[in-house]
Amino acid sequence: MTTLTLSIGGMTCNHCTASVKAALLRLPGVASAEVSLEHKQAEVRYDETSVDRERMREAIEAIGFEVV
After folding, report:
1. Are 2 and 61 in contact (CB under 8 A)?
2. Interaxial angle between packed helices 53-62 and 14-25, expressed in degrees from 0 to 180 and rounded to the nearest 10
3. Which of 64, 55, 62 is nearest to 28 (CA)?
4. 16 vs 22: CA distance, rounded Å
5. CATH architecture of 2-67
6. Angle ∠(41,26,5) on CA atoms, nearest 5
7. Cα 18–61–36 angle (5° rounding)?
């Protein structure tokens, strides 16, 4: 497993963090995702043979947030 921290723009509330977490957890290969509103970040544990940073970015941006 690999851990990656993504900086995320556009989150303003706990509903936003829950949406980002759910989007990440739907991706095959993502084992866990902890999303912080305070730090505007997501820490993701994932299997690098199943998913990559670009796919995570696409999933987050598809729900209206930005990976910066």
Report:
1. no
2. 130
3. 55
4. 10
5. 2-Layer Sandwich (3.30)
6. 20
7. 35
Question: Parallel, antiparallel, or unpaired: how do β-strands 66-67 and 2-9 relate?
Answer: antiparallel
Burial class (CB in 10 A: 0-12, 13-18, 19+), 5: exposed
- What is the pTM for the complete model shown? 0.94
The beta strand positions in the chain, using DSSP E, are: 2-9, 30-36, 41-46, 66-67
| pLDDT tens sequence across 6-59 | 999 999 999 999 999 999 999 999 999 999 999 999 999 999 999 999 999 999
